[in-house]
Amino acid sequence: MDNPYLNISNLRFLIGAFQLTDIDLSVRQGEYHVLLGPTGSGKSTLMKCILGLYKPSCGSIILDDSDLLPLPPEKRDLGYLPQNYALFPHLSVEGNIRFGLHSRRLSASAEDKEVTIQCDAFQIGSLRERDVRTLSGGEQQKVALARALITRPKVILLDEPFSSIDEGSRRMLWFDLKQAIRRAGVTAIHITHHLEEAYTLGDRLSVLVDGRLVQSGRKEEVFGQPAMESVARFLGYRNIFYGETRSMFGGTEIELGDFSVKTSKKIPAGERVAICLRPQYIKIIREGDPIRKSLERNVFKGEVVSIFMLPEHCLMRFQISGSSSPFDLELKFPAYIKERLSLSVGKKITVALWEPSIIVFRGS
Amino acid sequence: MNRIFTIILIATAIIVSIILLALIAGIVLELVTSDSTKSLDTGEVLFAVKLSLMTATISSIAALLVSIPLAYLLSRYNFFGKTFLDTLLDLPIVLSPIAVGAMLLIFFNTPVGKLINNHLGPFVFEVKGIILAQFIIVLGLSVRLLKTAFDGVDPEYENLARTLGYNRFQVFSRVVIPIAWRGVLAAFLLVWARAFGEFGATLTLAGAMAFKTETIPVAIYLKFESTDIYSMLIFILILIAVSLTTIFAVRSVKIFRCYGI
Q1: Distances (CA, A) of B76 to A67, B149, B161
Q2: A15 contacts chain B (CB < 8 A)
């Protein structure tokens, strides 16, 4: 990346039995970067290394051309929004927001002005005198954000900011949060294990698995083309299989046991690979319909084993004819398709894999 | 089975309450029926009360000042020798107060002890000795109670304050203490009450001399020795009243917390 604003390289940190290993992360100025990973992957640990609360054993953290590692947390110019917001219970809403002005050494009138600006920006002027323990989750988040932004940090780090907010209110608050960060013009690093939240908020994503940063890039790249099997599994990909390659004319056939998948990718014969077939790219072929070229290489006949109705879509399990597995493929499609194709358990159908969506992980 | 278990719980509470109330009632009954022909020396009572209040206040403030950094250290940091220090601090809690007093007495017979005694003392058979004995006895308790208070403060508040530009000392004074103040106050009250009632170590180091090292527990001992039961009962009732008031104050601090005050 050209001239990153925050650049972490070769960072290592050991805490108990857990280790962050060779972390390389670059964030552009003004970017909303999401650090995504399963629980226990080291996201919060990495965040605490950036904040200066943990001291890495090696590596470097450069922010705006200055080395952060020798600096204590209070000198790093970083904002922090903890998971539980950590609003000081002994201070009112205004007291909490004002608390952050300590480092700016302003006059009393200038402090008042700054507090008013933040209260107006987050529309919390009416809460100024309130006890923070009486606020709702969304109000607490706004106060915590105002407190963090009033210091005018170079980067704000948000540690799972929606974990204490109920599912129904989250989506609306995603947009409010991103808008507030954009308005403040601050670079943000947001950590979460929530895929939808990451995709909605992030300009770029990095995926952390078992203490290693395994993939970084634009969100479409990361979600569309996971770099390795562990990323695919975390991103909720189903239909992950292991097999061995065989040469064939115009591509490679991957033998998976009960069935095989053909791809136009050229892979040497005899190689062990893992493949991932995304459920939404497995198409149901209606009887008599022509099969498109991108689907024709991988057509399977079989039977519907089970159908799960979810609020926005259907998940269907499909067993390929002659297979010994309880089911072979999982398909995902809009709920109306079930009615349109009269799908039911036991129905004999034909499915096809959309070839460009087949992801092959070599060296598995 | 559930019913029997509930009965056992309630019966235990009732029996323990009866035993403790019977002890207090026994004192009151004895006071009413005892021979009060020996007039109570109010001057002596006032001296003992004043001395107890003064020594307990000084020793518990001193213990608190030493315990606050120690308790914070034990609450927040892991370091080599932490378990050793933790165990050492438990010693005055579990050791017999008489043994602690004897250890202090022996210490002041060593070259270092003599040096301290010459420059800061004298401690042996003096009021300073009472304060020192109380200080050593309550130190472990003070650290334990304060550590519990600091453990109750989420370290995330401190992390956050650091990112807002506060150094470690500022975080401690502007975040940790204001959040933990109820725990600190409750700890002070309990430590003060323990110091107020301290006897064993005081007796060994400072002796039992009327109008000199006569705290309320020492006065009880002296009156018991001289079979002045009436005066002894008065001193016991004063001790009970002070102890109950302190415990009530500690409870009130906790109740205020429930109401968010």
Answers
A1: 27, 12, 15
A2: no
**A106 has a chain B CB within 8 A of its CB:** no
Q: Is the pLDDT of residue A86 over 50?
A: yes
CB pairs under 8 A between A and B: 63
Q: Do B164 and A51 touch (CB under 8 A)?
A: no
Can you give the pLDDT at residue B260? Answer: 46
The answer to whether residues B162 and A76 touch, using CB atoms and an 8 Å cutoff, is no
Name the segment(s) of chain A with CATH classification 3.40.50.300: 6-226
Chain A nearest-CA residue for B155: A86
Pairing type for strands A329-334 and A313-320 reads: antiparallel
The Cα of B172 is separated from the nearest Cα of chain A by a number of Å equal to: 13
Using the Cβ of A151 and the Cβ atoms of chain B, whether some distance falls under 8 Å is answered with yes
Q: Which residues from A are below 8 Å from B159, CB to CB?
A: 48, 51, 53, 73, 80, 82, 86
Mean pLDDT, chain A, integer: 89
User: How far apart are alpha carbons B116 and B118 in whole angstroms?
Assistant: 5
B135 SS3 class? helix
Residue ranges, chain B, pLDDT below 70? 35-39, 254-261
Are B162 and A72 within 8 A, CB to CB? Answer: yes
The answer to whether A13 touches A45, Cβ cutoff 8 Å, is: yes
| ipTM passes above 0.85 | no
pLDDT score recorded for residue B230:
83
Q: What is the CATH number of domain A240-362?
A: 2.40.50.100
pLDDT at residue B172, rounded to an integer: 94
Return the pLDDT at A287. Answer: 83
Chain A residues near residue B162 by CB distance under 8 angstroms: 51-53, 72-74
User: What is A297-314 written as a DSSP string?
Assistant: TSEEEEEEEEEEE-SSEE
Q: Which residues of A37-47 are buried (b: 16+ CB within 10 A; e: fewer)?
A: beeebbbbbbb
Report the predicted TM-score, pTM, of the whole model to 2 decimal places.
0.81
Per DSSP, the three-state class of A60 is strand
CB B62 within 8 A of CB B137: no
pLDDT tens per residue, range A163-216: 877 777 788 788 888 888 888 889 999 999 988 889 989 999 999 999 999 999
Residue A199, CA atoms < 13 Å, CB-side half-sphere: 10
Classified by CATH at the fold level, domain A6-226 comes out as Rossmann fold (3.40.50)
Nearest to A297, CA basis, from A344, A259, A336, A342: A259
Task: Please check whether residue A16 touches B, CB under 8 A.
Answer: no
Chain A interface, best mutation among B159, B160, B257, by max A CB count within 10 A: B160
Pair B175, A88: CB distance under 8 Å: yes
Q: Which residue matches tokens 């009954």? A: B29
Alpha-carbon distance values, B222 to B197, B219, B226, B231 (Å): 15, 5, 6, 10
Checking if the pLDDT of A342 tops 50, the result is yes
Which part of chain A is CATH 2.40.50.100? 240-362
Helices B82-94, B127-151: inter-axial angle, 10-degree rounding: 130
Tokens of A3: 């001239």
d(CA B149, CA A29): 42
How confident is the model at residue B37, as a pLDDT? 61
